[in-house]
TrEMBL record:
Any GO MF annotation of the entry: endonuclease activity
Ranges of residues in domain GIY-YIG: 3-82
Family indicated by similarity: Belongs to the UPF0213 family.
The protein's name: Putative endonuclease
Keyword Protein biosynthesis part of the UniProt annotation: no
One Pfam family matching this protein: GIY-YIG
Keywords per UniProt: Endonuclease, Hydrolase, Nuclease
InterPro entries per record: GIY-YIG_endonuc, GIY-YIG_endonuc_sf, UPF0213_domain
Domain of life: Bacteria
Organism per entry: Salinimicrobium catena
Length: 99
């Protein structure tokens, strides 16, 4: 991957809950979400089993990624769904694309 920072959206198996985050290591971060959902369930993503990657964007700087995260978090669910569907029409789990 050509970027150092990522905005990502993960969901649960039923695609009913979305978690939006920023990271500089998308593989490690998704693994952390998975581990938390299996063992601790302390975080939002862990409690709702959100570790299935459905969307991501790359950025050169952390401030760009954080700015985009804040923008998307303000959106209604319908707009977030459209963003994901435009990028990933079948809402396939993209975890294998980044591992």
């Amino acid at each position: 991957m050509l970027y150092d920072y990522f905005l990502y959206i993960v969901t649960n198996k039923n695609k009913s809950t979305l978690y939006i985050g920023v990271t500089n290591n998308i593989q490690r971060r998704i693994a952390q979400h998975y581990f938390d959902s299996e063992h601790f369930r302390r975080s939002f993503a862990g409690r709702y089993n959100c570790y299935y990657l459905v969307y991501y964007e790359g950025f050169a700087t952390p401030s760009e990624a954080i700015q985009r995260e804040k923008e998307i978090k303000k959106w209604r669910r319908e707009k977030k769904n459209k963003l994901i569907s435009d990028f990933n029409p079948n809402w396939e789990f993209l975890n294998s694309d980044v591992f």
